[in-house]
């Protein structure tokens, strides 16, 4: 009779030898999650604050910029005549 070779392939956990399946691996302390810090652009901050319900004026104040800049960030267009009236009333 000829010789027969039997190969067992571990498809459930590739890369783990079959001799170790069913055994408990050495326990390791869980890795500490690192904090991710993201700095948002002024435009992204304005959009986020606007979505949270803040007014354009409040957003401009928090970001230290003008209401026109915030309007530009949010793609809000203001009638030039109205804008002029707002500016003149703010200066009075």
Low-confidence stretches: none
Rg, rounded, reads 31 Å
- Largest beta-sheet details: none
Taken from the alpha-carbon principal axes, the silhouette is rod-shaped
Structural category is mainly alpha
- The residue-averaged pLDDT reads 80
Query: In DSSP terms, counting alpha (H) and pi (I) runs of 4 or more, how many helices?
Result: 4
The strand count comes to: 0
Q: What sequence of helices (H) and strands (E) makes up the elements?
A: HHHH
Helix content: 40-55%
Q: How much beta, percentage-wise? A: under 5%
Distance between the first and last residues' Cα: 108 Å
Topology (elements, then pairings):
Blueprint: H1 42-51, H2 56-63, H3 67-73, H4 80-91
Helix pairs in contact: 1-2, 2-3
Question: What would you say this structure looks like, in words?
Answer:
- With 92 residues, this protein is mostly helical.
- Helix content is 40%, strand content 0%.
- It contains 4 helices and no strands.
- The model has no long low-confidence stretch (mean pLDDT 80).
Considering the chains and any ligands shown, give keywords for the structure:
single chain, 40% helix, rod-shaped, 92 residues, mainly alpha
Brief description of this entry?
With 92 residues, the protein is mostly helical. 40% of the residues lie in helices and 0% in strands.
């Amino acid at each position: 009779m000829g010789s027969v070779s039997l190969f067992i392939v571990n498809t459930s956990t590739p890369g783990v030898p079959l001799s170790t399946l069913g055994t408990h691996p050495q326990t390791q302390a869980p890795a500490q999650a690192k904090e991710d810090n993201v700095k948002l652009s002024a435009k992204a901050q304005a959009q986020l604050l606007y979505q949270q319900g803040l007014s354009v004026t409040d957003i401009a104040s928090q970001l230290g910029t003008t209401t026109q800049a915030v309007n530009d960030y949010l793609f809000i267009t203001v009638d030039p005549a109205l804008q002029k009236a707002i500016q003149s009333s703010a200066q009075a």
